[in-house]
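INFO  loader      accepted 1 record
INFO  loader      residues=92
INFO  predictor   begin
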Amino acid sequence: MEFSNIKIELNDLPENVHVSPSVQFDPDYDYAVSWAESLFKKLCPGEEWLPPMPEPGDIIFPSDSTENKAKEDSLKASQESTNTTDTQTKET
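INFO  predictor   done
INFO  writer      dumping tokens
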């Protein structure tokens, strides 16, 4: 992997191309975060920048909901099957 510092004339770039700042030698990410925030606000006006995370217990993972849905469907099917069998038994 190779990095190089080349100068780019920003006026020559299309409007939809955004150039990230060059590497900072200070161990500080404030500039990169502020740049990312300003770019986010340009690209997604009206959206919240880094909204707070939900509580871990409130997170519903897609795999969990799929498994739960499958279990519920299976339970309903077995209950319906049992009800149908009971009805047929009572009729005879």
